[in-house]
Amino acid sequence: MVFYRSVSLLSKLRSRVVHQPSLTNSIRWLQIQTSSDLDLHAQLKELIPEQQERLKKIKSEYGKVQLGNITVDMVLGGMRGMTGLLWETSLLDADEGIRFRGLSIPECQKVLPGAKPGGEPLPEGLLWLLLTGKVPTKEQVDALSKELRSRATIPEYVYKAIDALPVTAHPMTQFTTGVMALQVESEFSKAYEKGIHKSKYWEPTYEDSLSLIAQVPAVAAYIYRRIYKNGERIPADESLDYGGNFAHMLGFDGPEMQELMRLYVTIHSDHEGGNVSAHTGHLVASALSDPYLSFAAALNGLAGPLHGLANQEVLMWIKSVVSECGEDVTKDQLKDYIWKTLNSGKVVPGFGHGVLRKTDPRYTCQREFALKHLPDDPLFQLVSKLYDVVPPILLELGKVKNPWPNVDAHSGVLLNYYGLTEARYYTVLFGVSRAIGICSQLIWDRALGLPLERPKSVTMEWLEKHCKKSA
Ligand code: NMX
Ligand code: MLT
Question: N or C: which terminus of the chain carries fewer CB neighbours within 10 A?
Fold first, then answer.
């Protein structure tokens, strides 16, 4: 937040200077500033030294300050509540939900430029915000859209690598394969091989990250078309923005689906650093693995049913409710179905969270989208009923810490409404979006010179001995 404030102060100050009387010198300065204002790389170059200084100061002044006590429960409980990572791009509050560089989702919807005034935020704008801490202008977002389009070419061998897999392979397996094949062109790997100085690591990381973000929609769209649409590839539409073009390449040209995709990609992008995919990407990158290797690893974490795959599980589960009880399922029938799920040793997908303790604001904004565009859709109405029925049952179990819905409880019914009905594909959409968050932080990891991640582990014997001694 402090960063966000200081950066926006800086830009306010600059715009004041820019509007000085029209001395020739000022005009020249204005022109130079204007062209670099549109250049994300130039903006970052300016920001990095001050953030490096900031980190140095935190280390030297507060290095020994304690951030909490580590308990045995934390070690055995998946490190819940243990502060252990630096992640600049977003921060999660258990009750309020995610803030991207200090901005909540409703605030992002207000201030980030849309494809049309009042429209859903453009993911490129979010990328700019995550990287710089500044809310971009429409011109900056348009410049970034253009840059991403120019980086989106996919080498033919990437398609061939995907084609080597059976078409029945899970879409996430195909996606990770595609990302691994993209790695062949990694600028970071090439630069490292040539012996790049560590102070320059962030530059090829920036190159790879922007290219990866630009390329993943085309790879993801290819996988969708390959599995479900006889392999007919749809070329990019150069006139479209990132989210709109992704919907287009998947085969959806309706303006509402394009708006949905802009919102979808924006809200799934980042969820601070401890979630499985972000943490995995960050961990792998800490070994100086390049952004492609790191992001492919992150995708493998996202493909787990307790994480990103939950969006597939939710729609399949909802459809199984409908096939057993019909679309007009009563709340009593729903209760029975939920108990049947729980009694068979499964989780109710789309509910609960490792950190959140209230309804996920990403769920809420998708609900608002549904109320605006598809209020009468029977599956949306079923999702609304689940909001009333599931939490009391999960609370009755007596062990669930958060009975409320998460992001995945809602996304499937929106996609399904617009014709993207193939639930097995949904986690790929999540993955495309997550590239934005993970790669943004990765650039900062390199710029700040964050070290190899290597926490200490212990055995049960060690724990027993240690605890007996300190009892
Ligand atoms: N249905 C049934 N049981 C649940 C649920 C649920 N939705 N949520 C938590 N529990 C159980 C959990 O399995 C655990 O049981 P046990 O002690 O027998 O192992 C117990 O409640 C305590 O778990 P929590 O501490 O509340 O949750 P935790 O932090 O361990 O896990 C999730 C968080 C998200 C993995 C868990 O809530 C879950 O499995 N939810 C369903 C899957 C899902 O929607 N995942 C998507 C999360 C968002 N994302 O995109 O990543
Ligand atoms: C996410 O978006 O990564 C999920 O909500 C999981 C998490 O934050 O742990």
Answer: C
